[in-house]
């Protein structure tokens, strides 16, 4: 075995993080789809149709891939779906009052906090490098959010709603992790979406919004969100949670505000300053730090006899 081979991560060790990273990129498109759909539907109705459009597609995918009907739903899925639907409801309201980057940053603080919650409840103690990665990523996220030019569209009411969404997203990540430990990824994402559609329907009624857009063109944004954010984004994140510690997952999905801010720069004229660009770079660096693994010391001729003796003794 060469020294290079000794430094390689365990087989499939990167599958979970890569799934989470791809899911975070797709979820980063969610605020873009919301902004583009607000001319036709309210924020809660957009969320409702996002889930409704995704349900039949997820059912077809589950049956085609697993060759069976969905497994029985459990309580963790119900809790996770409720938390996520409330997170999206508060986040959608917040996005109508503050900038995309600001709302996304605050919500994603909940993803970081889930690492501490998992440590407390799931006994998933993070490695020391995780704390440094969190610090770097949060500083970067703060710079991305708060480093814009003054006089923007930020509103304290939107920030408060985003804080509530951050609390919900922590509960969602924790319960999704528990659900994923008991069910397959396809079962979890399917039942999550069903629960989310039910909760979102109540949110539309409570908010007084109309379920139907004035024209069929109003369904374009929810359909886009169903494919990109719900099936692509949330589906990949659920799959990645089954292969990745919750603490690491919370940092990886911080790619969301980077994607959202970069696209918003072009679509909504929310230009990025040098500070915000540096913040985006820090987030990416924090994600990279969270994935670092300790280097294994190569086996030397002098140490090999001792290692063989220990192995034989075991």
From TrEMBL:
Q: Where are the transmembrane segments?
A: 12-34, 46-64, 76-94, 100-122, 129-148, 160-176, 188-207, 219-239, 246-265, 271-289
Q: Where is this region: Disordered?
A: 294-314
Naming one, the record's GO cellular component terms include: membrane
Keywords (A to Z) from UniProt: Membrane, Transmembrane, Transmembrane helix
Q: Where is the EamA domain?
A: 16-145, 157-289
Question: So which residues are the signal peptide here?
Answer: none
What SUPFAM superfamilies does the annotation carry? Multidrug resistance efflux transporter EmrE
Q: What is this protein called?
A: DMT family transporter
- UniProt source species: Henriciella mobilis
Q: What is the lineage of its organism?
A: Bacteria, Pseudomonadati, Pseudomonadota, Alphaproteobacteria, Hyphomonadales
